[in-house]
Amino acid sequence: MMLDSFVQLPKLNEQEVTPYFIQIYEHFKYQIMQGAMAPDTRLPSIRKLAESLRISNTPVEIAYQQLIAEGFIVSKPKRGYYVQQLQSAQLFIEKPALSALSAPITPRDPRSYMYDFHISKNDFSLFPTRVWNALMKESMTNDALLQYGDPQGDRGFRDVLAMYLQRYRGLRCTAEQIVVGADIFILASQLSLLLQGRGGTLGIENPGYHAIPETFAQHGYCVTPIALEADGISFEGVIQSQVNTLYISPSHQYPRGMVMPVAKRLQLLEWARQQDAYIIEDDYDGEFRYHGRPIPSMQGLVENSPVVYVGGFAQSLAPAFCMHYMVLPTSLLAKYHELKQRLYLEQSVSRLHQFALQRFMEKGHFERHLRKMRQLYKRKHDLVIHACDQYFQGRAVLSGRDAGFHMILQVHHHKSAEELVMIAESVDIRITPMSFTWWDHPDPHALEFMIGFGGIPEERIEEGIKLLSEVWFS
Question: Other C-beta atoms within 10 Å of 422: how many?
């Protein structure tokens, strides 16, 4: 075991606008990725490092918790914090990645509920309507925006989006790599055409999000479900599947909610490099993490990564604007431009919306809006946890916490999932069984439900959970 006296301590820059905890996190992350801190190296204790840096314990503790969440270090009770084993890290990192920091398919139900735990609804109570309307009005004064736009997305918008992704989601990308589209089907269709001729196999998480795999299947791909482990998709399952494209949600797996640690991310990136494969990284709710910083993207871990990053503004802003995007690896750009010319592709997102969102981001409104929404959703997230702990009292287990817009409630009950849903509906409660997220469900009798908290008013959360526990267990 190496002693913490050999650890190079961070040097904090008081003039830097970056908070201390991010500087500490960045320092240790870079040291670990470069191999300067070997596996099992012991980090200084929180108290010792804080004293050395002449700061409070809090920034150090937050930085350590983020490193734990991403799998760089592990906390060993009564022993301290130790560097995790990262396979193939030295192959990738030449400089620190920029730190950072698509909505799921849902069963359609047009009814309204008093207690609506919908899994992907938004809360628009804090939407900056006046600001957005002013920017839309400004957009309408530009007659050029009424013309056909760039099929790839307006350059000004892509420039701003690239800077945002670099700063807040940790991507390594330029505007040239971004392709904008109105919905995920359009982008997935284009991507499936770009990846044709490579064997036509797609590995997916099981359970997982179906829209992209279904699109690939409609384009003739063979879709192979791969089981999840406690830390994400099974690496052995990926190897055994012999797929050449992999679709995953590493920062917050849908629907289970686990975070894939950096060691497994690096394993998958090395697998993709060796197999000449591509990884599709879905980051549909990556901005919304409620305890600790948002998890940076997998795409940004390596230079020239074989990762197609997929994101959108349905959850962070509003689904009605129909704004999604993908970030292509540089190795696919030439083929994309050839496809664009052959198919006479046109831009499916309104140029007016692109320009308004560009200005919305340039003026800092988007960052402010995200901060407010994180605070709002965090309160709702914590209310669900408190209410479930209080009223279910061991008769159900809540998992998938700390991020996104839903959690998983596993119930111990003699009735079926369908019966429990009907009982909930009888008292005006919507709750969604998780069965629709499976491709190959191993246990049709599992009682797992998705509790969404995004759209339900705060004041209805506790009374809704209380009522649900009463009608299920009375």
Answer: 11
Tell me which residue of 19, 367, 36 sits closest to 169, measured CA to CA.
367
Q: Kindly list the distances between the CA atom of residue 158 and the CA atoms of 173, 191, 354, in Å, as whole numbers in the listed order.
A: 11, 18, 9
3 state SS of 17: coil
Question: Amino acid identity of 443?
Answer: D
DSSP string, 278-304: EEEEE-TTTT-BSSSPPPPPSGGGSTT
For the chain, the straight-line distance linking the first and the last C-alpha, in angstroms and rounded, comes to: 55
Contact 357, 434 (CB under 8 A): no
Give just the sign of the alpha carbon dihedral 89, 91, 94, 99. Answer: negative
**Site of tokens 């590995």:** 203
- 243 CB-near residues (< 8 Å, 6+ apart): 201, 202, 203, 224, 277
CB of 460 within 8 A of CB of 114? yes
Alpha-carbon gap, residue 393 to 166, rounded angstroms: 43
Over residues 171-230, the pLDDT tens digits come to: 999 999 999 999 999 999 999 999 998 889 999 999 999 999 999 999 999 999 999 999
| Phi, psi of 167, rounded to the nearest 5 degrees | -75, -40
Which pTM does this prediction carry? 0.83
Distance (Å, rounded) from C-alpha 175 to C-alpha 167? 14
Q: What's the Cα-to-Cα distance from 20 to each of 62, 165, 304, 366, rounded to whole Å?
A: 10, 21, 29, 23
Predicted confidence (pLDDT) per residue in 86-119, tens digit: 765 444 444 333 333 233 344 567 788 999 999 9
Residue type at 389?
A: D
Taking the mean position of all CA atoms in its chain, how far away is CA 396?
26
Q: What is the DSSP string of 109-150?
A: -----SEE--SS----TT--HHHHHHHHHHHHT-GGGGS---
